[in-house]
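Notebook, p. 212. Picked up where the previous page left off. The plan for this session was modest: take the two constructs that came back from the sequencing core last week, fold each one, and keep the raw output in the notebook itself so nobody has to go hunting through shared drives later. Recording the first one now, exactly as returned: residue sequence, then the structure token string.
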Amino acid sequence: MAEFHFKTPLTEDDVRQLRVGDSVLLDGIVFGVRDGNLIRIFDQKIAPPCDWRGAALLHTAPNVRKLGPGKYEPVCVGTTTSMRMDRFTEGLLRDYGVRAILGKGGLSQASAALMQRYGAVYLSVTGGAAAMETLQIEEIEKVYWEDLMPECIWQFRFKALGPMTVGIDAHGGNLQHDVQAQAQQKTAELLRKMGVT
């Protein structure tokens, strides 16, 4: 397993270097997204108000403190479960050029195939690490679609976000799928040893 430290925006060459299990730190802009803004983009057909070519998108709906018009400071920026946003993967990669999706719990095998095709990765954020993640934010630079609060599009500037684990690489590897398959195999072996079929 290798360690990588990248600055966003990411290139296809950046993400093609990564393999499942590698460790990644990110500097620069990471956009916070969640169901509300993704539904607006894909179901309501409203284009995002920012350029996502080479972007890293974090599944989150953060707790923040308002400082003034359009200005916020982070209180707690945690990561949310990714699977319910799985259906948006293809559009994000194909239509908007996203290179990394950050979240917890993994994405489907269909999304893994899309990441291989388009040159993108899924980076697994450690669950329960919101306090550390929040401290890695240098600034909330912009907020788009404030009417969706807290499911706006957040433009965070991070310093050394992570470490995150490559959960899906751009070569078809899917760590979550592999772990589930191993667990199912071990469960079947244990049940056989116990005489349960």
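Okay, moving on. Second construct, recorded in the same format:
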Amino acid sequence: MAISVTQVSKLYGTQKALDQVSFEIGTGELVGFLGPNGAGKTTLMKIITGYLASDAGSVSINGELVETKNVAIRAQIGYLPENNPLYTDLYVREYLEMVAGFYRLQNKKEQVLKMVELTGLKDEQHKKIKALSKGFRQRVGLAQALIHDPAVLILDEPTTGLDPNQLEEIRQLIRTISTNKTVMLSTHIMQEVEAICSRVIIVNKGILVADGSINQIKGGQFVQKQAVLVEFDKSPNLEELRKIHGLRKVQPINATTFIAESDGRSDIRPALFHFAVDNQLVLLSLKEQQQSLENVFQNLTR
């Protein structure tokens, strides 16, 4: 496994930021890492990259133990933190050459040119970083995270604050990068995860609450709930509709159309059909809806 996290815990005073979190990410996977603010995402990412020590448990990258004193392991890891700290008075190419020097790369200038090309910075390489837009600064951050050709890439909120065009450009860049690297992507944008990730890990209050493919997450494996769109030919008695056994919630769309939710233990469509017959209503639509990633996230983290 490229990343192996085993029973990792972290305390800040008496507050438990992480509580025995465990998962593995295979080589070449692009995984979305989700959780509300304060869930422990950034803390875990810092532990994975070796910038922060855990209080219990362990992390390994390609079988090698990650520790704050093990500086050599960072040659296998690329990291773009949320605030993307850059030396804004330096020119783009000058900054990337400095970062390449930190890793003591033998082919420093060649690797810088390669990163400039990969991240679309060719026309910006001779500008000062402070003169760049937010989107191009994010590209510089990605270039510095990739310059030493790491096996594992950790990205913490890489698209925050970008406009729709910049956002799509960075997404496409991440897709390109992920073809030959293991990528762990933290974000609050659910559409982004659905667009580029094959797997999702969700944490809440320091605890891992879900880990599976997009289809498993949305298919009800972690949140048992059924949502059915039902449309009648005329307005039903809403009070009687809410009395259907197993129905947990009724959300009106208009006078004749509703989203009916159950706990998912049994299919409520037969009960809705019988309700229509008993009340002399015509069913115009009765369609089960797949849960959205956003709905599952809210149910797991509220």
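Notes on construct two before I forget. The domain at 226-301 is CATH 3.30.70 (Alpha-Beta Plaits).
Flagging for discussion at group meeting.
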